Backbone:
């Protein structure tokens, strides 16, 4: 197998190359990942989640196999965790070597990079060999075969032998003996390295050496105190000494390293490039497995979704929950069932403030996004069609006051979403248009929902506007004339005056919410009359 063809996330090089072009990936922005809480829980450093989204069912299934192996074989995750810091070190060495460093430093960087490369391959080989008979997915099977082929090749065996001999010579150097010629005024005139030594020099006094009469056997005891390098020297003198020293070291290393480096450079660079290219994929998969593992540890369900055809516009989830909330709190998580079907591709979700509307809206987006990352989703069952993009509008500091400036900003953002979304897109609007009065907000929202229904999108409009939910039949009648998808209503429940955080498919009853709240706080007519009797 050619190392350039391999990927842990894409089944073929053609699909990997296709996804490297941002325009070929689904439209899921960095801002959307932030609003869905995904950037927070994944915390990637070597890449962005937006680099990994796909709408290709084959790619999703390939990744599902890869992640399943990581979840079922903890040794695999441990192996990836072991090579991650090694690859970080190789990348940092590459960066340093590209800076203006001396030839001596460059030679040492080259040796160190080869050492790290060998360490990385050996770690991979040992880890993969231990579980190769248990691996299910194609990705780790191919990686195991390729690493085994590399490590058992004659070239790699010889590389190890030569590296051991070379590093032993380089690492055993503990000091340098320098010869300095002086002019008539005892000023340094010229200098050169006499030898590289395996022993460090020690401080001493000339009188001690004379009294011990041990010049021959005490070559590494100085006749004066050792002085820290650079102490009492000007910056120019330090640079001059550095230059002379590096030049001398380069001459010494040249015969040992330079020719050998040229021989192995192409081989090592090609294969370390292969490993470095996998670094973002390794980090993504490792973090994904860790997130899923944390959810499982809390006793929560995660499941690989069935990937439905795109034109089915399917989203069906049982016991769906918000992963960011689940990882942030220790309280019991309320899960909900939600399905987009022939009677509803769009939902208007209403209910009391802090009743769970935002939580379930984010949960739907997180499940859709995680599906299109090739990961398990936070539910006990899921069947999901891929989307062409996920579009969110979660205004900050939403309230019920009239703010024409913010209303303009909200409307501009909603126009941007409409311009970008297509019939296969998903929208999630949370308390949009809350910056204006109920009448104006309901009217504008009805226009937006009608247009999105005619386009054939799927999504959720979470709102405090009970008036909007009441006119859904009118919106459906208007959009149906143009072939629009149906809209239905969801309500965030209140049971006995308490927010249950359960979502029901029902028509909203704003009066019942108000009555339950009035009863809860003892402000209903009957409650007040009882108080009056007292």
Residues:
């Amino acid at each position: 197998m050619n190392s350039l063809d391999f990927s842990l996330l894409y089944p073929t090089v053609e699909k990997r190359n296709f996804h490297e072009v941002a325009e070929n990936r689904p439209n899921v922005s960095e801002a959307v990942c932030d609003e869905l809480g995904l950037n927070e829980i994944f915390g990637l450093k070597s890449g962005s989640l937006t680099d990994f989204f796909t709408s290709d069912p084959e790619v999703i299934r390939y990744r599902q196999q890869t992640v399943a192996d990581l979840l079922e074989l903890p040794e695999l995750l441990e192996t990836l965790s072991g090579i991650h810091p090694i690859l970080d070190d190789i990348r940092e060495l590459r960066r340093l070597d590209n800076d203006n460093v001396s030839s001596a430093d460059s030679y040492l960087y080259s040796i160190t990079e080869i050492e790290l490369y060998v360490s990385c391959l050996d770690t991979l080989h040992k880890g993969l060999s231990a579980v190769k008979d248990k691996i299910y997915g194609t990705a780790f099977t191919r990686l195991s075969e390729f690493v085994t082929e590399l490590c058992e090749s004659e070239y790699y065996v010889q590389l190890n032998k030569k590296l051991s001999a070379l590093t032993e010579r380089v690492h055993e150097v503990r000091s340098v003996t320098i010869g300095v010629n002086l002019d008539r005024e005892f000023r340094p005139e010229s200098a050169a390295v006499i030898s590289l030594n395996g022993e460090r020099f020690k401080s001493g006094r000339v009188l001690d050496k004379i009294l011990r009469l041990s010049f021959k056997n005490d070559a590494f005891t100085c006749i004066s105190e050792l002085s820290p390098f650079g102490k009492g020297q000007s910056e120019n003198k330090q640079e001059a000494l550095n230059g002379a020293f590096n030049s001398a070291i380069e001459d010494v290393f040249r015969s040992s390293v330079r020719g050998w480096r040229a021989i192995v450079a192409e081989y090592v660079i090609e294969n370390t490039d292969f490993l470095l290219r996998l670094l973002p994929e390794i980090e993504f998969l490792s973090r994904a497995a860790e997130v899923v593992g944390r959810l499982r540890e809390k006793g929560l369900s995660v499941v690989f979704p069935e990937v439905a055809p795109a034109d089915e516009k399917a989203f069906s989830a049982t016991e769906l929950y918000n992963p960011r909330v689940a990882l942030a709190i220790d309280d019991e998580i309320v899960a909900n069932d939600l399905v987009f079907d022939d009677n509803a591709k769009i939902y208007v979700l209403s209910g009391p403030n802090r009743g769970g509307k935002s939580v379930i809206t984010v949960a739907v987006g997180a499940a859709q996004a995680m599906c299109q990352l090739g990961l398990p989703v936070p539910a006990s069952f899921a069947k999901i069609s891929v989307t062409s993009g996920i579009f969110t509008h979660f205004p900050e500091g939403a309230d019920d006051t009239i703010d024409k400036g913010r209303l303009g900003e909200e409307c501009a953002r909603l126009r941007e979403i409409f311009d970008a979304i297509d019939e296969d897109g998903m929208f999630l609007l949370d308390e949009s248009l809350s910056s204006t009065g109920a009448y104006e907000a309901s009217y504008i929202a009805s226009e937006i929902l009608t247009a999105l229904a005619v386009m054939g999108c799927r999504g959720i409009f979470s709102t405090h506007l009970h008036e909007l939910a009441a006119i859904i039949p009118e919106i459906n009648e208007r959009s149906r004339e143009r072939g629009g998808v149906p809209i239905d209503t969801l309500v965030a429940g209140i049971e006995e005056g308490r927010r249950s955080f359960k979502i029901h498919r029902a028509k909203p009853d704003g009066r019942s919410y108000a009555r339950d709240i009035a009863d809860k706080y003892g402000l209903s007519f009957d409650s007040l009359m009882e108080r009056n009797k007292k």
User: Anything to note?
Assistant: The chain has three domains: 3-170+261-296, 175-253, 301-533. Confidence is low (pLDDT under 50) at residues 397-404. The two ends are 87 Å apart (CA to CA).
